[in-house]
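Problem: given the chain below (216 residues), write out its structure.
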Amino acid sequence: MRSSERLVVVLASVGDTWPHKDWPAPDDQYVDRVVRVSPPYDGLGETTADVVVLHCEDPAASFPGLLDVLRTRGVPAIVVSARQDTDAVVEVFRAGAGYLVEGDHCPQMMSSAVLAATVGHTYLSPTACDALREGASRMAATDEAMERLRALLSPREQQIMELLSTGLGAQQIGQRLRLSEKTVRNNLSNIYAKLDARSGTDAVLRWLGATPVLRT
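Solution.
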């Protein structure tokens, strides 16, 4: 996030207009302005976006096209959808995007998700988080492999990973554990190194047993 400026958010809606008229509020502490675009998202080339929020019915049909555009620009994304099945959530999460299930979030959570995306955290609403855990359990490694993975981390790092895997960001984790945000981020950097994880998304998938540890 730019230190002295609020964010520019692109709202990408598929098939209808942006349904959340109460977000962002005029006095939102994080969002400065919004820009609305529709498929094929040509408008993304005309704005300096900090985050893109995609509202769609079926992420499997709508998200890949947006993702292709975003890959060339390095802009983080959040999907907002009524779909809450495991496959939909896991595929979006694997791509590094946040996921908010309709009816499972409030305006404040939307703003938190947008801010989190700018600092590399993949935000999930509670229902989306449950779906991710369900998906990970289907693909989970053996108990022995999971024990080896958890043994790589200190008790404090294990606490942080458990909270990270529930959708919390560094600031929220710090509040829960009474640590500074900087301390949490330093711990996360150490965790990523120990797990050979490239990102928070990768680390969570490894922690949940859905991706094997590369180094033991």
